[in-house]
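DATA SHEET
Item: assembly model
Revision: 1
Owner: S.N.
Input lines:
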Amino acid sequence: MNGLLGIATLSREEIQAILDRARDFQAPPGQRFPTFSSQAGRTVVNLFFEASTRTRTSFELAARRLGASAISITAQASSVSKGESLVDTLNTLAAMRPDAIIMRHSASGAPHFLQRHLEIPIINAGDGTHEHPTQALLDARTILDRGAKLEGLRVAIIGDIAHSRVARSNVLLLSKFGARIVLCGPAPLLPSELTQLAPGVTLTTSMDEAIRDAGVIMMLRVQLERQHEAAFPEGEYFQFYGLRLEHLKRARPEVIVMHPGPINRGREISSEVADSQKSAILNQVENGIFVRMAVLERVLSGGMNAGAAP
Amino acid sequence: MPALLLKNGRVIDPASGYDATGDVLIHDGLIAGTGANLSMSGADVFDATGLIVAPGFIDMHVHLREPGFEHAETIESGARAAAAGGFTSICPMPNTSPVNDNATVTRYIVDEARRRAAVNVFPIGAITKDSRGEDLAAIGSMREAGAVAISDDGRPVMNARVMRRAMEYARSFGIPVINHCEDLHLSAGGDMHEGAESVRLGLRGIPGCSEDVMVARDILLAEVTGARYHVAHISAKHSVEMVAFAKARGLAVTSEATPHHFLLADADMHSFDSNYKMKPPLRGKGDVNAVIEGIVNGAIDAIATDHAPHPGSEKMQEFERCPFGIIGLETALGIALQQLVHSERISLAKMVAMFTANPARILGLQRGTLAAGAPGDVTIFSTTRSWTYDVNKSFSKSRNSPFDGMEFQGGPVATVVNGEIVWRADR
């Protein structure tokens, strides 16, 4: 029954265990991935109600590298269009007894709602504007790999905070480890209640203030598909909230630039920054697989709360 | 029908200020008298020792879903749930299919209720045709067919000019205008109260100001038109303050609050449980306290349930797809006792007034009193008996309540409508 619905319900110790285990899966640079077979014979279903290339592929590869088989279903509207409810869709899948369901859905709380009605563990691969726990885990792994310590680290998260599940999960995770988080974006995308998400969160609408002293800059995509209104003047977004080289010159020398992808060059981040030495964007993608292997292993071995995986 | 003698209860009749242990005699469907040691040969006797005997409760805000949505509720099932909640009169909102925007639909509801409903049903007609907010509905003829108020509940009149004309016209027919106050532009797409909880859950918010701006507009229009104006299910702090302001100016402005809005805040919601999804949404703790304060200081006149049945299939979905609304007829009295009376915020008599004399006054009903000659509607309830709500035993056809399993101290014991006991607790 113990899947992974969000960072909110994970303890610092559980998070640390996942991050440690993910490191075991990392391949040294230039070497082939080692293969594992600890989850041979297990089956996971990737159920994606929302388009996604990287997350779905990442979960699929993670399952295969553990020896498990993975089936991916893009449920975009296949059953829904025939009038089948989400509960019925999941019950149908559950009757085929996969060992876990990895789910992405455009509605906040969809996996939480389903988990109440389902025995099979659900791993949340992003629900609406709520949580994206494996993204926060892979981001933390990436920060640690660059030699930074989370405790006391100043992390600037910049962009469409209101509609970002990545921001929420990162705030929750980083706060549990004592990081200081600065959330930055146009005021209509930066509700004041965000400071109540977790300890250590401050808000600013000024990019310069957000970047000052930051050890990590996380850029977010403007999620126009989740906005139902013109909450800010789009045309001048890059001018005020796009990350450019000039910003990096004012930032700390060891600063890391991250982005959960997909990136929009010239919109929230300039090409020069995306391709710069400071960019950890591709490391994030790579770590996605290792972190998801660690998560899958824990879930398939009896749950997130069942102690450290063997 | 034999006479009915309710013996030895604590009789509370806020309309006359009567509050003493005694008897109530009902004869020919009417209250025949109230006092000590009444008797009448051949009368059925109900021993009300240790119980409260009050005028029949009036719920001025329910949804009976008939015609059009009988899979969720019918006039008959909703009326049975009302009786089991201690209500003797209920006022269904017009958002049926077809919308109750003309005398034919009004008469259909009145006739069906006369045939099949255990309690009195007083329909509320639409303000505008099809509740589209454009052309005024047949307000005068609905009034003649039995409508006691007009409202486009759930689809508030956004055009201030239309609202002004509705108030002017309704005034000439002596009928109050009830509004579900929600600026639909400010609330668009929202699923729960806008605040720390909506931000945490990643759900779109319905801000308190979406209610406030419409209450403000309507109060100004009520002053211009002189209309009797009533705010439905008030939930936001500033709205309560503005109603108090309107009353202080002597306007004919009244308001109601639901039990869920004076009991629960957004933080009490179980995450993504659609049984906590309604409009207006469960608001912040400060709003809940303001609603309670409004009840104490008189800004809020009536308690109404906004009983809104939805079948399980509609509530078993992603939170953002689920419809708004919860059932509430059977739990209203238990919650009011717990949250208002046992906690000593208001007197028992005041609570009774909010269920009886006050809604009767707002709607112009000759009910809500135990005065001799009044209709024989009586609610008999306990303030002490403990019981647990089991939603699966509800008389409603729907099960969408967040109060399943809740324990209460006190609740309805028997419900008398026009001199007849229509429901009696088996506990």
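QC remark: The CA atoms of residues 15 and 68 of chain A lie 23 Å apart.
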